[in-house]
Amino acid sequence: xxxxxxxxxxLGAGLMGRLLAVTLAQAGCRVALYEAGSPDAEGxxxxxxxxxLAPLAESAVAPVxxxxxxxxxxxxxxxxxxxxVEPVFFQREGTLVLWHRQDAAEAARLARVLARTGAEVxxxxxxxxxxxxxxxxxxxxxxxxFAQGLFLPAKGSSTTGRSWLxxxxxxxxxxxxxxxGSPRASRATFPQARRASPTG
Length: 200
Ligand SMILES: Cc1cc2nc3c(=O)[nH]c(=O)nc-3n(C[C@H](O)[C@H](O)[C@H](O)COP(=O)(O)OP(=O)(O)OC[C@H]3O[C@@H](n4cnc5c(N)ncnc54)[C@H](O)[C@@H]3O)c2cc1C
Description:
Blueprint: E1 7-11, H1 15-26, E2 30-35, H2 55-58, H3 64-81, E3 95-98, H4 104-120, E4 128-131, H5 132-138, E5 148-152, E6 194-195
Parallel strand pairs: 1-2
Antiparallel strand pairs: 2-6, 3-5, 4-5
Flavin-adenine dinucleotide binds next to helix 1 and strand 2.
């Protein structure tokens, strides 16, 4: 990647800030990453995220363009994680959707939405309808507790285990940031922000 700039300052060492910092640094850019909280960014949403990538399942509440982006992310994540020094848990096992008997009507509605999404986004692997035996074979610990389910295969709908990226050993705190939560943090405020820089 060739960049039209040689250095960059990023506000926020959450998931996006870290990903952006690593990607720019890999392209030869000098990156300063600033975090309003501590260098570990304990307040970042990514710290508590379930870290699932399940674009087909999420189409129950997400529009088609977002589903397409989620599908792209399934192959992009391993590329982003591969060069990292510290391992980040990632798995692609597909998504198993189960429900209790009283939620059968809601499950039928979900299945209709997923079928419609499948028609609109054909690159997603089609969902499969499971019976109790199929579910027990996929997840033996569930036994025969569920009579019906849906399986969204890994190719089209998958699960990642952890969205948090470890911070570099160079992370260092500096005095408390005046730009906490401020979307208008200016260049002049950067030196006073807490700094969590992967490259300097
Ligand atoms: C409970 C929960 C579950 C979720 N589950 C999933 C899921 O299963 N799958 C999925 O894909 N996504 C999930 N998400 C969404 C995902 O966590 C977010 O989309 C993602 O973390 C956003 O990344 P971000 O870097 O933009 O924000 P964050 O991770 O929140 O990071 C923002 C950082 O910027 C810092 N900051 C803010 N302002 C400034 C400033 N002015 N100067 C310096 N630093 C600043 C903050 O302190 C924070 O550390 C979930 C979110 C939540 C809350």
